[in-house]
Amino acid sequence: MNITNKVAVVTGGNRGLGFETSRQLGKQGYQVILTSRDAVKGEKAALQLQNEGLNVNFHHLDVTNGESVDKLADFLKQQFGKVDSLINNAGIYIDGKGEENTIVNVKLETLQQTLDTNLFGALRVTQVLIPLMKKQNYGRIVNVSSGMGQLIDMEGGSPGYRISKTALNAVTRIFASELAGTNILINSVCPGWVKTDMGGSEAPRTLEQGVDTIVWLATLPENSATGGFFRDRQQIDW
User: How far apart are CA 167 and CA 126, in angstroms?
Assistant: First the structure.
């Protein structure tokens, strides 16, 4: 592997937004480490992109498992000595239906499981990879959030998912404040309603449209925005 290439890590890269983000970063010449909790699906996804001529490799990652996250960090340190871009895309939506899909009746286990992946998963990975970014004073971190996490437009339903994305936005702001003055930029993004397994077939946006702002934030030039929330390359309210 060519260590002079910029290295991007994409969590939840075996399908949907993560897969397309891996493809688009690969097209820009990045060495992409596509990660997935499901090794079989992850290997298949990476192979598909390799067959398109892209520099994409698979590495197993379960963002809910600290040991798994540490193994990824060790691999990156030994193989490349750096990470240039991190896209925290891994996420789940397991809110129930009917009465269970309300804050009044949601099971705490549902909230805990959702937060462990959507919030703590992103936090775990970011914490272990920031030292590699600090080493070279360069890093771009993108937290894939959702408009469903906007406090300005908060509604009922989907409590686990909504809370996890609102909290993820808070994490973005805190990291941005603590990293102020460095060349490590971190932002949240709402990709919109996209045709994915989660979004469904009726979603109006294509994968290419959904990842455009993700890829843009992952490749920002120096002195660009940090600590922001973006949709369609425009800053939106929290």
Answer: 15
> In the numeric block, which tokens belong to residue 92?
């789940």
**Strand order across the 7-10 sheet:** 56-60, 31-36, 7-10, 85-88, 139-144, 184-189, 229-231, 234-235
If pLDDT is split at 50, 70 and 90, which confidence band does 195 have? low
Average pLDDT over residues 111-132: 98
Give the list of residues 6+ apart from residue 19 with CB closer than 8 angstroms, or none. Answer: 13, 34, 45, 49, 207
For residue 11, with 0-12 CB atoms within 10 Å meaning exposed, 13-18 middle and 19 or more buried, which class applies?
buried
The Cα-based distances of 84 to 4, 32, 219 in angstroms read 11, 10, 9
Collapsed DSSP state (helix, strand, coil) of residue 218? helix
User: What distance in Å separates the CA atoms of residue 60 and residue 236, rounded to the nearest whole number?
Assistant: 33
CATH number of the 7-235 domain:
3.40.50.720
Q: Output the pLDDT for position 202.
A: 79
| pLDDT for 5 | 86
Tell me, yes or no, if 161 is annotated catalytic: yes
- Residue in 14, 70, 11, 12 with CA at minimum distance from that of residue 40: 14
| CA dist., res. 42 & res. 45, Å (int) | 5
CA distance 179 to 81: 20
The average pLDDT across 63-80 equals 98
Average pLDDT, the chain: 94
Cβ atoms within 10 Å of 53's Cβ, excluding its own: 9
Question: Catalytic pick from 30, 93, 138, 161?
Answer: 161
Q: What is the pTM of this model?
A: 0.95
